[in-house]
Automatic annotation (TrEMBL):
GO terms for cellular component: cytoplasm. GO terms for molecular function: 3-deoxy-8-phosphooctulonate synthase activity. This is 3-deoxy-8-phosphooctulonate synthase. The keyword Transferase applies. It comes from Flagellimonas maritima. Belongs to the KdsA family. The keyword Plastid does not apply. PANTHER family: PHOSPHO-2-DEHYDRO-3-DEOXYHEPTONATE ALDOLASE.
Length: 274
C-alpha cells in the first residue's frame, strides 16, 4: 500500500520512517491534546509522517479493576478532535466486530491487537471499513504466519494492511524481538516495530505488567537498522501515573532527542540501500 491513501498524513515523500505514537489509552481530552501537540511539533520539525495513537478502550487487562476507558463514544470523539485540531490521522485498536464500523467513523487506521490477530471475523470487519488495518503480530506467531492475516485483509477487498511486530513471548515474563522476521514480513506488507510493547514484562504476580523503558532507544535504533518502515511507541508526559502500560512507556520529554537520532540513523540506512 502507499502511505498517501491515509488522509492528512504529511511528509510521505520524506523517505523517513513513519510513526504511530501517543498514549496507551485515552484518559481524557486535555491529556490527549497535550500529547498530540507535542508529538506533532516534533514530527513536523523532523518531517516524520505521523499518526496519533490512542486506545478508545482497553479490553485486554490483567485484572477486573484495571482501567478500561472513559467511555467508547467519549474517547472516540476525542480522537476525532485530535485529528481535526492538529490535522493528523489517528489509529485505535478494536476488539469486537461491532467496534470496526463504530471506530471507523472517527479514525483512519484500525489496529488489531496481537492476541486477536487470528480472529478472522474481526480482521475482515476491519478491512471492509476501507480503513488501513494495522495487524499486530501475535506473541505466539511466526513472522511467516502473518502472511495469512494480510491475505485475509486482501481477500476482503483491501490492500491497506500493515504488520506490527510487538515481540514474541520468551518464557512467561519477557518478550523478544527476532529481527530476522523483519525482511520476511516486509514481503507481505509495510512492517512497523512496536518499541514499547516489545519491552513489556507480562504475567507479573501483582497483575500489573512491567517493562524496561530504558531500552526503548536501543530497540528503536535496532528496528531502523533492520529496515522497518515504521515505528510504534506509547508516550506520556507522566508515565508513572498513566492509567495503562505506564511501566513501558517513553517519557514525552525524551521523544525529540530519540526521534532526532533515529532520523539521522534512517538517513544512513537509506544510503546503504541505494
Amino acid at each position: 500500500m502507499q502511505l498517501e491513501v491515509i488522509p492528512q498524513l504529511k511528509y510521505t515523500n520524506s523517505n523517513n520512517f513513519f510513526l504511530l505514537a501517543g498514549p496507551c489509552a485515552i484518559e481524557g481530552e486535555d491529556m490527549a491534546l497535550r500529547i498530540a501537540e507535542k508529538v506533532v511539533s516534533i514530527t513536523d520539525k523532523l518531517q516524520i509522517p505521523y499518526v496519533f495513537k490512542g486506545s478508545f478502550k482497553k479490553a485486554n487487562r490483567s485484572r477486573i479493576d484495571s482501567f478500561t476507558g472513559i467511555g467508547n463514544e467519549k474517547a472516540l470523539k476525542i480522537l476525532g478532535k485530535v485529528s481535526k485540531t492538529f490535522k493528523v490521522p489517528t489509529v485505535t485498536d478494536i476488539h469486537e466486530v461491532s467496534d470496526a464500523t463504530m471506530a471507523a467513523e472517527y479514525v483512519d487506521v484500525l489496529q488489531i491487537p496481537a492476541f486477536l490477530v487470528r480472529q478472522t471475523d474481526l480482521v475482515v470487519a476491519a478491512a471492509k471499513t476501507g480503513k488501513v488495518v494495522n495487524l499486530k503480530k501475535g506473541q505466539f506467531m511466526s513472522p511467516e504466519s502473518m502472511q495469512h492475516a494480510v491475505t485475509k485483509v486482501k481477500d476482503s477487498g483491501s490492500d491497506n494492511a500493515w504488520i506490527t511486530d510487538r515481540g514474541t513471548m520468551f518464557g512467561y515474563q519477557d518478550m523478544i524481538v527476532d529481527f530476522r522476521g523483519i525482511p520476511t514480513m516486509k514481503q507481505y506488507a509495510h512492517v512497523v516495530l512496536d518499541v514499547t510493547h516489545s519491552l513489556q514484562q507480562p504475567n507479573q504476580s501483582s497483575g500489573v505488567t512491567g517493562g524496561r523503558p530504558a531500552l526503548i532507544g536501543t530497540m528503536a535504533r535496532a528496528g531502523i537498522a533492520a529496515g522497518v518502515d515504521g515505528l510504534f511507541m506509547e508516550t506520556h508526559f507522566d508515565p508513572s501515573n498513566a492509567k495503562s502500560d505506564g511501566a513501558n512507556m517513553l517519557d514525552l520529554s525524551l521523544l525529540e532527542k530519540l526521534l532526532t537520532d533515529l532520523v539521522a540513523l534512517r538517513e544512513t540506512v537509506n544510503g546503504f540501500d541505494s
